[in-house]
Amino acid sequence: MITAGIGCRKGTTAETVLAVLNEALEACGRAGERPQRLATGALKADEAGLLEAAERLGVSLTIISDPEMEDVSPRTLTLSTHSMAHVGIPSFCEAAALAAAGKSGRLVGPRHVAQGVTCAIAIAEEAA
Q1: CB 20 within 8 A of CB 53
Q2: Which of 128, 121, 127 is nearest to 107 (CA)?
Q3: pLDDT tens, position by position, 14-33
Q4: Which CATH architecture has domain 2-123?
Q5: How many other β-carbons are positioned within 10 Å of the β-carbon of residue 109?
């Protein structure tokens, strides 16, 4: 199962989210594959571009609570000063991907950043 953790600037369009998601999948050697789930933190739960991107992919947008993000933070690969300053998490999108992927989830590489979107890809043997 592939889970994509997403963070973005307010007002980011679904087109931009999907373009960066595709870039992230390509960067980690999974070009042409589609995530079974998109995930983000509670801070972005109402972000229209994320909700529309999930709808276009036909997947759910899993909202990860702050405590869940904090629990998986030691497993993130990136230390973003921006993320630490705003949400106290080393990498918002990596933490979202890991938490949504479940206990067997692992990141396939560090986050991909482009056009105001951060995207991390996690894989898990089984659905969380």
Answers
A1: no
A2: 121
A3: 999 999 999 999 999 999 99
A4: 2-Layer Sandwich (3.30)
A5: 16
